[in-house]
């Protein structure tokens, strides 16, 4: 090879290596809830953008918050629930979004944007809604019938009345490990405001939990999906889409276990999970590309079809499978929505009371 040819080859090799090094450098760190994305969403984004994604998962707001408040979490995109988002905004954890980098923002549902904005982020400056859902009762009708004599659950009575849950103890009942979501279940059942700061009401809620505690198999916020699907437990109080995923997993595993999901007639908690960028995110450009990618209706519809939570993207709704968008357990009708309560942002002192109470409830003492 002539010298000129060699030089050209060396130059193009160097060019290729630099491009490769940049692709390797261009890494986006995402921290999302477990079981909350379609299997190919990340691969699609990586292929389209050339950005490598490190995707980690959590199953409680408390875990995410501990990382964010400690600072330097290393994440570029995170998904807090809107009640936690509100206080994290106050703590200066997030950066304001530059909407000019999010042209797909237009696909979001304006009513939902306004609702979550009014509740936790005035003007939607810091985050947009990803998915939302309800906190209800997933159950195995056959096992519940054998233990309790009924195969349809429509009330919190089944798990909050000590005599009922005691009968279910043998087949296994689990609850979410989340004071901010579980203590309001008892407050609501007792007829108190779900965001009560009243020490007497909170003590009554704690007493109710302590009465049913001996019949509870465990507290966990993600394990119940496989345990219900495998028939290891018969009742789980959990997130709507997760309990719907348990149904699907049971079907795929041969349909021996049949499952149902109930939003109790007394009403239930609802939550909104939001997409935000921490203030100290290192790969801002990639964070915006990922957010804008997520804001595409086709992408959000694919995620909803997989995880069975309704999303915040209005343009995605017609693209969601009809058996999902038409399923009242997943997309509750207006009369059921009217009975839902939002999980509130609590003052720090009440939050501490709830955390202490929860430790006591879990230990059963
Ligand atoms: N597997 C995904 C569950 C998402 C639940 N988000 C919870 C919100 C809590 N307020």
CATH architecture of the largest domain: 3-Layer(aba) Sandwich
Rg to the nearest angstrom? 23 Å
Overall tally of structural domains? 2
The CATH topology of the largest domain: D-Maltodextrin-Binding Protein, domain 2
Q: What ranges have pLDDT less than 50 throughout 5 or more consecutive residues?
A: 1-5, 7-11, 14-23
Number of separate strands: 10
CATH top level class name of the largest domain: Alpha Beta
Topology as a string of helices (H) and strands (E): HEHEHEHHEHHHEHHEHEHEEHHHHEH
| Structural class based on helices, strands and sheet pairing | alpha/beta
**Helix coverage percent of residues?**
40-55%
Shape category: globular
Q: How many distinct helices?
A: 17
Beta-strand residue percentage: 5-15%
Q: What are the bound molecules?
A: spermidine
CATH superfamily of the largest domain: Periplasmic binding protein-like II
Oligomer state equals single chain
Mean pLDDT: 93
């Amino acid at each position: 090879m002539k010298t000129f040819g060699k030089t050209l080859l060396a130059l193009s090799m160097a060019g290729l290596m630099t491009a490769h090094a940049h692709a390797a450098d261009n890494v986006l760190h995402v921290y999302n809830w477990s079981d909350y994305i379609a299997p190919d969403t990340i691969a699609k984004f990586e292929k389209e953008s050339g950005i490598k994604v490190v995707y980690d998962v959590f199953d409680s707001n408390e875990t995410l918050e501990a990382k964010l408040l400690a600072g330097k979490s290393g994440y570029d995109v995170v998904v807090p629930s809107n009640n936690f988002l509100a206080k994290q905004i106050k703590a200066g954890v997030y950066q304001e979004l530059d909407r000019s980098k999010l042209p797909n923002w237009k696909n979001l549902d304006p009513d939902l944007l306004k609702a979550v904005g009014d509740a936790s982020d005035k003007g939607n400056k810091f985050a947009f809604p990803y998915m939302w859902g309800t906190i209800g009762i997933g159950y195995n009708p056959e096992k519940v019938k054998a233990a309790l004599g009924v195969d349809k659950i429509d009330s919190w009575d089944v798990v909050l009345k000590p005599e009922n849950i005691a009968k279910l103890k043998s087949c296994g009942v689990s609850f979410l490990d989340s004071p901010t979501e579980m203590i309001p279940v008892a407050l609501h059942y007792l007829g108190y405001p779900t965001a009560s700061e009243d020490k007497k009401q909170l003590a009554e809620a704690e007493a109710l939990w302590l009465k049913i505690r001996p019949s509870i198999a465990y507290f966990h916020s993600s394990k119940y999906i496989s345990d219900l699907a495998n028939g290891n437990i018969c009742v789980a109080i959990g997130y709507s889409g997760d309990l719907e995923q348990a149904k699907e997993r049971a079907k795929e595993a041969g349909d021996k276990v049949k499952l149902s999901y109930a939003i109790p007639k007394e009403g239930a908690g609802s939550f909104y999970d939001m997409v935000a960028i921490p203030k100290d995110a290192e790969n801002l450009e990639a964070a915006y590309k990922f957010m804008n990618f997520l804001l595409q209706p086709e992408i959000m519809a694919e995620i909803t079809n997989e995880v069975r939570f309704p999303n915040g993207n209005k343009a995605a709704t017609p693209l969601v499978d009809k058996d999902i968008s038409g399923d009242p357990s997943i997309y509750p009708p207006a009369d059921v929505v009217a009975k839902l309560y939002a999980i509130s942002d609590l003052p720090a002192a009440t939050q501490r009371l709830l955390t202490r109470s929860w430790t006591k409830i879990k230990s059963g003492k």
